[in-house]
Design a protein that fits this description.
mainly alpha
Length: about 210
């Protein structure tokens, strides 16, 4: 039987391809981190985990499969794009209205953002249906259904560590930059969310 240490090393190395990749979740984490610091990253990671664990369980027991995914993928791709556009527009609107820095982002919940930007991210789902599914299969082969929980623990700490650390440094950086530069950063991050939304729509067109 493979030791848990050997398996943990594999999980960390493989998970890095998903955890550290840029995307709407990471971008929104920086947006919230600038205002809230580490706690923003922790909350977003918690919202991400709320989606991730049930998804892993569904994959483990075979409820989700590549056979039914195309229709599901099309739906979440379009919804994800719309959410990204809406979020970005509200951010840009806040900048143009010259709201106080402390009030930007306040209408959006960090945990909710973590949930929505995970559940409606087709590339997150694809990662678990492909690379992640291999990890789930290996874990269940060694520890049966308990392997899903073991895998989740070995994987999820990376989300908390990465998002918490990057939001911490986002907050630190915001203290040494001017208000004008801060607003330019918010604007650029909002535009990047629009970019991800366009990518999502292109993904949808490749499905239909």
């Amino acid at each position: 039987m493979e030791s848990i240490l050997d398996f943990a090393l594999v999980v960390v190395i493989v998970s890095a391809s998903g955890v550290l990749s840029p995307g709407p979740l990471f971008t929104s984490n920086i947006l919230f981190g600038i205002r809230e610091g580490t706690k923003a990253g922790i909350k977003i990671a918690a919202g991400h985990a709320v989606v991730e664990l049930p998804l892993m369980v569904l994959l483990g027991i075979g409820v989700l499969s590549l056979g039914i995914f195309p229709h599901f993928r099309a739906i979440i791709t379009v919804l994800g794009a719309l959410v990204l556009f809406g979020f970005a527009i509200f951010q840009i609107k806040s900048i143009l209205q010259k709201k106080e820095i402390s009030k930007i982002n306040q209408k959006y919940g960090t945990i909710t953002t973590g949930i929505v930007f995970s559940a409606l991210n087709p590339f997150f789902i694809i990662w678990w249906l492909s690379v992640g599914f291999k990890l789930i299969s290996d874990a269940m082969l060694i520890w049966s259904l308990g392997g899903i929980i073991i895998l989740f623990i070995l994987h999820v700490w990376m989300d908390f560590a990465w998002l918490g650390t990057t939001s911490y440094f986002a907050k630190k950086s915001s203290k040494i930059i001017s208000s004008k530069i801060y607003r330019l950063i918010i604007l650029s991050l909002s535009l990047s969310l629009i970019y991800f939304g366009v990518i999502f729509l292109n993904e949808f067109l490749s499905i239909v």
